[in-house]
Each structure stands twice: as structure tokens, then as C-alpha cells.
Amino acid sequence: MPSGTSVRERPLSSRTAHTVRIVRTGSSGALVRIIQRPDGTLMAVKTARNPRVPATQQARARDTIAPYFGTRLPEVLFAGHHHGNDTLITRCPSVTTLADAALRSGPTTQAATAWTEVTEALCRVWLQSARPGFEPAQATRKHTLRLERARHGLHHAAHHLRLPIDGQHHIIVNGTDHGSLDRVLHRLASLRPPTIHVACHGDPQPRNVLIDHANQWHLVDWEWSGHHQDWRMMTSHLVGWWYVESLLAGTDGRLTPTRSALALNYSTPPPASLSRWAAPAVRAFQRMSRPAELEQDLGALAVHTAMLLLREIPKVIADGRHQLFAPLLGEAARILDSAYADRPHPLLEPFTHPQQTDGSPL
User: Domains along the chain?
Assistant: First the structure.
């Protein structure tokens, strides 16, 4: 007998519905099945044995941002336990994510338009919901917890690859010394909080956006949604996801450990290849950051973007794609280093040009 938010639909069965897509999502290991019913409508069934965020809490998180996004958030049909699994069932507007539309071969104009609309909508919500002050302990997504997971994942990956490195080893990227691993981790920890907190979908990236047949977008996977977000962390998802994907898709690296250093060699994608997808995030950043806080906000954007790269390392090692360790760690080190240098990393260079901003509505 299922327990949780009541289901307003007939129970699913193999006689009345069939699976049209299966996706394993995020670091929680949840499985999402897209189910098509005889009338052609779709439902998403998300299940997990040991979820990081229970389905009932995910449904409540959705409610926190529903006033801002309305029908852009698919309706929850059930949240609770079913057959021993933590289960969330929602309506599903489409089987196609914005990532699918953007990364497939052929024209991507519609995907780019949708991505611009999503980013602009998120920025409007940030401006509308912004309130003074930010308490890290109250943050919906806590930087300290993400850092601890990144640190653990990095050391686990190094152990798996039998790399004899410790915090004193220097990270050498294509011949340039970017300091010790301890310095990288220290810079990740040295994050100054923003002056405001905002409401947001906590993981705004293309795989969490569905595109329907009318090219309308819908936000899914709301487990990290809430009112106390760091808008700079959210911006890092808007730009960092594209950079991570470009590295995963087209970069091979080589790593050479020595007694005191880890030499990383690889090539990076040209910045121009990402400009189309990063431009909306640049505009959002420029609207949110005030001149007096620009340097601090750029530093935070670098920290959060580097974090996204490091968080990918355990995943690629688990998948056997060891050649990606070098570019992911190397780019994280380069991005962090650039925050303390006169010349920014090419990915973040467009963010350094201040424009006339709206400022935060305090």
C-alpha cells in the first residue's frame, strides 16, 4: 500500500502504460522512468532506495518556487513510499530535455531561444525575491557540504587511480604551476557570502529543463529549490554546465605524477564555441552584481564553477573515463587561480565587463 501524498490517478500497470525513456539522475542515484499512458499523456516516475532528499521534501521544495514559476513546474501526482522505494510521480510535458535539443546534431536555434528564456526567467525571480542578508547555515544548497563531497570525491578518485599525491603536491597545467592542492582546496573554502539571498530552482541546468512540442520550457528536479539561495552559485550552473559538457565530450588528458607535483596536459575547447550558451548567464550576472561587489561576485563565480568541475571527477572515474581527470582538475585549478590574477579564465572573461545594472531590489 503506498504511503504519501494522495494519488489522483489510477495506479500504473504494465497493461495500461509503457516506459518510453529511463534516465538515472544526479549524484543521488535516482531512476526516472517516463511512462506513456494509453491516452498519450506522460508521467515521470522517480524512484530511489536511499534518496538524499525524500520525495515528500522534493514536493515541498517545488511549492516554495511555485509562486514564481506557476505552470512551468509539472504537477505532483504522488510523493511518498511505494513498493519499498521513495517515489515521486509527476506529470511530464515531454521526454526531451533542453540538453537533448542543444547537444544533438543539426540546428539548435530553438534550443538557444528556450535557454535564453529560462535564464531570463530565473534572473527575474532572483530580482523579485532578493532579500538582504545571507546565512550560510540556512542556505538551501550549502557550500560547505558541497566542498566536503568534492574533497572526498577527489581523494577517492586519486586513490582509485593510485596517484601518490597529497595536499602539498603542486598542480601543473600544461607547464604552468597553479599552486598546491591544499591551496586549491583553501581557495574553494574561502568564499565570501553574497549580500542577498534569492529564491531559485537549486540546480538550473539544461538537463532539468524539458522542452515540449510547442518549444515551451518546464523546470523539473526541484529537490534543491528554495528561498535561501546564493545567486552566484546558481549562475555557475548556467555557465558551468556547458563548460563541463564540452570537456566531457571532446577533451582527452594525460597526467604524470612526480614526487612533488601532478603534471596535467590537455587541450581546452575554444571560448567561442560556448559563447552562444553562456551569453544569457553573462547578462544575468551583470544585472545582479553591483559595481561595489563585482570583484567579490566574480571570485564567488569562479569558486562555484570550479566546484562543478571537481564534482564531476568521481563520476568520470566510476565510468572508466580516466582521461578526463586531468582536464577537470586542471580547469578547476586554472579558474580558481584566475580569480587572483589580472587575466581571467577565458570562460569567465565575459563576466568581468560591467554594464549598467538593475542592482538588487533591496
Answer: 3-91 (3.30.200), 98-352 (3.90.1200)
Residue 222 to residues 61, 102, 198, 253, 311, Cα–Cα distance (Å): 6, 21, 15, 34, 19
Q: Which three cell numbers stand for residue 113?
A: 531561444
**Per-residue pLDDT of the chain in tens (362 residues, 90 and over written 9):** 445 554 444 445 556 789 999 998 766 679 999 999 999 999 999 999 989 899 999 999 999 999 999 999 999 999 999 998 999 999 999 999 999 999 987 768 999 999 999 999 999 999 999 999 999 999 999 999 999 999 999 999 999 999 988 899 999 999 999 999 999 999 999 999 999 999 999 999 999 999 999 999 999 999 999 999 999 999 999 999 999 999 999 889 999 999 999 999 999 988 888 999 999 999 999 999 999 999 999 999 999 999 999 999 999 999 999 999 999 999 999 999 999 888 899 999 999 986 644 544 43
**Strands of 226-229's sheet in order across:** 131-132, 196-200, 226-229
| Sheet (strand 76-82) strand order | 3-5, 76-82, 85-91, 42-48, 30-36, 18-25
**pTM (2 d.p.):** 0.92
Strand partners, 86: 48, 81
Using a 10 angstrom Cβ sphere, with 0-12 exposed, 13-18 middle and 19 or more buried, the burial of residue 43 is: buried
**Which SS3 state, helix, strand or coil, does residue 233 take?**
helix
Q: Which residue do the cell numbers 510523493 mark?
A: 79
Q: How far is CA 190 from the centre of its chain?
A: 20
Among residues 196, 170, 220, the alpha carbon closest in space to that of 329 is found at 170
User: Nearest to residue 231, comparing CAs of 306, 300, 291?
Assistant: 300
Angle 176-177-181 (CA atoms, 0-180°, nearest 5)? 140
Q: How far apart are CA 51 and CA 48, in angstroms?
A: 5
The amino acid sitting at 315 is K
Query: Shortest CA distance to 346 belongs to which of 295, 293, 290, 275?
Result: 275
**Three-point CA angle 121, 241, 143, nearest 5°:** 85
